[in-house]
Amino acid sequence: MADVNRDKRPLSPHISIYRPQINSITSIINRITGIGMSLAAMLIVWWLLAAATSASYFDFVNGLLTSWFGLLVMFGSLWALWFHFLGGIRHLIMDFGIGYELKSVDFWGWAIIALSFVLTAASIICLSAF
Amino acid sequence: MTYKTDMGRVKGLGTAKEGTHEWWIGRLTSVALIPLTLCFIWRVAPLIGGTHAEVLAAFQSPFTAITTILFIMIAFVHLAGGLQEVIVDYVHGKVTLVVLLVSTKLICWGMGFAGAFAVAKIAFGA
Question: Which residue of A38, A88, A123 is in closest CB contact with B41?
Answer without folding.
Answer: A123
